[in-house]
User: Fold this.
Amino acid sequence: MTKRELPALSIVEVQDMLRRREVSPVEVLESLEERINTVDDKIGAYLTRDLTAAVTEAKKTDVALPLGGIPIALKDLINVEGQQCTCGSKILGGYRAPYTANAIEKLRAHGAIPFGRMNMDEFAMGSSTENSSAQLTHNPWDLSRVPGGSSGGSAAAVAADIAFGALGTDTGGSIRQPAALSGVVGFKPSYGRVSRFGLVAFASSLDQIGPLTKTVHDSALLMNAIAGHDSRDSTSLDAPVPDYAKNLGRDLKDIRIRLPKEYMIDGVDSAVKTAVTAAVKQLESLGAEIVEVSLPHTEYAVSVYYILATAEASANLARFDGVRYGHRADNITNLFDHYARTREEGFGAEVKRRIILGTYVLSSGYYDAYYLRAQKVRELIRRDFAHAFEKVDALASPTAPTPAFKLGEKTADPLQMYLADIFTIAANLAGICGISLPCGFADSESGKKLPIGLQLLGKALDEARIFQIAHAYEQSTDWHKARPKTIAEGMKRAGKAGEL
Ligand code: GLN
Assistant:
């Protein structure tokens, strides 16, 4: 193992080396930085990073801690005191966080080092990272394609071995969908499991912070660090946090899994159908009992989401008006002009679309017809899951209906973009937990391998069981060991020199 090959390792593997003193935390950071410098101009995952500050932290870290000396990349909407936090938006240009998010305080208490601010769709609105005001992020498996979104920078960095692990956020799929499209593991915790203190809010009743990693074990370790009650987030749950890594390696003998029929519909890519069907068979061969189940209100999930999430976003984004944070328009003549021009200049098209939609569904005369009605349907969706989880431990489905699509393919058609989250959104509405993990590949016309994700959903606070099932599946396959050929140069695990 040369230092150049270090970034290809999982968190568990790096930890081992750190604890055996075969490498120091500073060397880990430096080898990562070197690889970022050779690869990221092709990927565009990082917005900024501060090696000097990270090295200072690394020198003080204790490698005996659970994540001692492990650099973790952050989606650029999680506040860390002194670091930028642009949310991928021009309106937060120049803003520096005055305080640190609870999830990051917890990561640091476990010895991890926050390193790098990752590209994202503006205010986490999007499914391709193309709504970032800063730059495009390319999928490491095929640079002409999107990495998914909105946590696309986090997912692409983990896939390209330029981050050992990253934090993203999932409001309607933004961890799981990019994890699927980029071929990594993405975990959405149950609502309330991870504190939202210090996370810039998009839709407060749906947002959760969660990890993107190379393996299920790494994901469980990051969850061990960030989960748990925080009195500064009133929606944070005061429930004990089990050791998520503890049940890994158990068999699936008493586990019942279902494949909801609403999740294998027309419009799902045939390679995705084939891979997910095979994955469910594989779970069966590992001992799980498989039955079909129905979630009858699934078809309303996307519509309900785009009413509730936009309503919440229109309220949450009202604070960005040029008075306190970031961008302010020049040559203002009066107060109205100040608000209007600052917001006109600062927000991108998708964010404006959502603010307008959200303001509309909340306005008097429409509130009952849209917002209130959507709340009622949200309850029906929640009950669908509650019924299903009376009989089963997990629901299996594709994470996304298609593999990674081409950059620019869906930007002109917002509805097509919204449908990229058709299988992930319902879990956020119901507040349950879920994971996406690699389960196969589709072939693109140009001969590139495009990753496919298997989604496993579990009931609220049943994270440990989802990790157990996901780990058993992962360890019985080789999908998670594959590395994108385009960025494989110098990587021992990939075997071959790459094309980049
Ligand atoms: N793609 C969905 C949206 O655009 C979900 C985003 C998210 O989970 N943050 O709203």
The two ends are 22 Å apart (CA to CA).
